[in-house]
C-alpha cells in the first residue's frame, strides 16, 4: 500500500458503503472496506429469496469481485466492535481475534437493523426480513411448515400451520404478504395432496389506518385492493401486542393461531451507531451535517440508514436505498474536497419516487412522486427497474431467467432446504410440541 | 389413498429410490417416498458446489416437484430410525416426533456414507464430500480460508492456509483437486492483492500406486499427467495416518501443514443397513438376490449403494449411479411381477463406461469400457453427459449458463458465504488458535 495516500476505512458494504468505495476507487486514497459478509446484498429482492422465487446468489454479489480491478480497495471480512475516534482507530473481530485498524478518514455505513421496539418476545418468536440470512431462515421455515401441514391430522394444528402473519404495511410487508400467498396458491399447492384443498391464510397487519404511509391516497387504496384481490387479509389500525403458545395477539382483540410471524416493520440504526461516541438522534441514528460528516467529528462520515439528516421539510431523510446512494456520492466527493482543502457541498435529495409489487401483474408506483401507476404497468416498471439496478450482468441474467420461469411455469425455482427438519423449528414451534398432539402414522 | 392398492414405502430419494418411484408412479400401487431432505441431489456435481462453480439449486431438485403429477406418490420429509420387518413397519422421525409407518413392500435405497475406516480423528477434522450440506461447508471453509490467508502476516500460517489436501484418487478426488486448484488460480487469485503472488498447493493423496483404479493404464497415467500439468501435486502409494495441530501425517513420512483435508475416498452402506436385521455383506451393504430382494426377506428390496450384489465375475457391482439406476428399473419391474404372481428377473448390468474431469479442457473417459479418450474431447463428452442427465430443464439451463460463464469469464459464480466467519472454523482451526500467532493490524 502506498503510505502517502490517506487511508479511508469504510464500515459496511451495503448501498451506502459500497457507493462510497466505488466513487473513491480511482482516487488517490487507500480504502479498506469492512463487512461481516463477503457479499453485498441487493436488499429489495431479499423477500423473494425468502419466498423461494430467487436464490441467494441472484441477489448477492461478492465484494471482492466488485473491486477486482481496483488495487486501492482492500476488503476485510469481519465485524467492527468499537470506534475509538480520538485515536482514529477501530477494532475489528476477524477470524476469531480482534485487530486494531487505524484510519485517516472513517465512513460509517453499517446500515440499519430490525426494530422490535423493546418487545423481546417478538424478537425471539418472529422472523426478521432484512438480511440474506433472514431470508434463508424464512424459506427453510416455510417449506418445513408445509411438510408438517401436509401430514398433520389435527385440524387446529393445521390451521395454525397454514396461517401466516406479516407485520408492516410498507413495501417489504406488502411484497412479502403477496409473495407468501402466491408461493402456496400459484406454485406449491398442487404438490401437497393432503392439504391442497385447505385454505391458507396470509394476514398483513399494519398499525396505521392505511398501507404504504407516504404514498398518495389512491395508491394506498389500490395496494390494499390488489392484495385483497389475490387473497391476502389486510388488518389496519392494529398492532401486535404479543405472541404466546403459537397465538399472536393483536391490539384490536384478535387472536391468531400461527407458527409464522414475519416482522417487516421498524428499523433503527445498526448497533454500531452507539460506538461512535456521539449522541444519537431518533431511531438510534448518527446525526450528520449536510456534508455527511458526523456532527462534531471532522474525520468521521456517516451515510445511509445509519445517518440522521433532516431535509428542507424538517423531516429526516427516509432509510431508503436512493438516499443512501446519493449521500454516498456526495460523501465521496466531499471527502476528496476536504483532502484538497476545498469547500464541501451540502446534501440535496432527488426523489425518483417509490414503488411496491404485490404479485403477478400487480403493483403500485409513484413515479417522481407525481405519476400514479397501478397494475400491470406498475408491475412491469418494478421488474424493469429492479433488473437494471441489480449488480452485474450474470445476476441480471439469472434473475431475468428465474422471473420468466416462475411467471410462465407458475413455479418457484429456489426450494432447496438445507438442514434437518429438527434444526428448523422456531422456538414457538418447539414450545408447542408438548401441547399439540399429532396423529401417529398417516 | 386407495386402500386396495398395495403400499410401497421407499427409503431414500437418491438415484436408486427415485428411479424406483418414477417407474412405479403410474402403476396400481400407493407409494410413500421418505427422505431426510426435500430434494434429490445430483451427486456427480456436488464437488462443483463445494468449489464455487455451481449453486446448490443447480444440482438439487425438489422431490415433490418430480412427482407433482403422480397422485399415487406421497412424500414424507423425515429420517427412518428403525425397520421392523416382521411387523412390516418402519419408524420415522419427522418434525421432532416419531411415527410408525406400515408397508406392504419396502424399498431400502438409503445409499452410502463416507467411510473413515474407524479413524475418528479424521472424521472430526476432515471434510466429507457426499452431500449438498458437505459441499456448502467446504465452500464456506475455503472462502473464509482465503480471507484469512489474505491478511495473515505469519509465513507458516500462510503456508498452512494455502495448502489443501484431497484424499482419494477416484473420480471425486481427482475432480475436486483439479477444481480446487482452478478455483484459486483461474478465478479468485487476482482479487486477493496480498496473497496473489503466493503459491497455493493442492495435494492429491492416493493409497494405491495409481489414480482411477478401474481405468486402463493409459487413462490412469493421463489423469495424473493432466492433474500435474495444471499444478496439482499427486502423491501415490501413501495413506493419511493422522491429523494433529493442522498437520496431516502421511504413511510415507510426509508431514503437511494444512487447514483443509477433504476426504473423498471410501464409502460404506448407510447406517440404515444395520436396521434391516440381516447380516451385512462387505462395506456394510445389504446382501440382495439378483432380483433385488433382500436375502431372506420377501417383501423388502434394496437398491443402489446400500445393496450388495455380485456380478458374473464374482465382484460386487460398484457403488455408482448407473448401477443404481439399472437396479431400480429392474426392482420396479420385479415388484410388479411379484404382485402379479409372475416370475422375477435377475439383474444384468450394462456398463456404459466411466469418465472423470480434471479442469478446463481436461478429462479422461473410458467409453463403453472400450474407447479411451483424453483431453478436450473427453471434457466435452463429460460436460454433455452431465448436462443431459441432470434433472429438469431449468437446472440444465442454469448449469449450462453457469458453466459457460465460468469458462468464458474465468470466474466462479457461487461465492456467497452465509454465517459469520466465527461460525465457520473447523475444529482444527480453532485448536490452532492458541498456538499460531497472527500479527495484529495489517
Quickly count the helices of chain A.
13
User: CA-to-CA gap between the ends of chain A?
Assistant: 66 Å
Could you give the order of strands across the largest sheet of chain A?
5-2-1-9-21
Q: Tell me, what's the shape of chain A? A: globular
List the quaternary state of the chains.
homodimer
Largest sheet of chain A: 5 strands, parallel
Structural class of chain A: alpha/beta
Query: Roughly what is the average pLDDT of chain A, rounded to an integer?
Result: 91
Q: What does this molecule look like?
A:
The structure is a homodimer of 442-residue chains. The first copy, chain A, is an alpha/beta fold. Chain A has helices at residues 15-24, 46-50, 56-59, 63-66, 120-125, 132-151, 155-161, 171-188, 217-230, 321-339, 375-389, 393-409, 427-432, and strands at residues 7-11, 30-35, 39-41, 60-62, 73-77, 79-84, 89-94, 97-102, 105-108, 112-114, 127-128, 163-167, 201-206, 233-236, 240-244, 247-250, 255-257, 260-263, 267-269, 286-287, 300-302, 307-308, 353-359, 362-367, 371-374. Chain A has a five-stranded parallel beta sheet with strand order 5-2-1-9-21, covered by helices on one side. In chain A, strands 11-18-12-13-14 form a five-stranded parallel beta sheet. A three-stranded antiparallel beta sheet of chain A has the order 6-7-8, with no helix packed on it. In chain A, α8 links the parallel β12 (163-167) and β13. The longest helix of chain A is centred in the N-terminal third of the chain and has 20 residues, at 132-151. At the A-B interface, β5, β8, α6 and α12 of A face β5, β8, α6 and α12 of B.
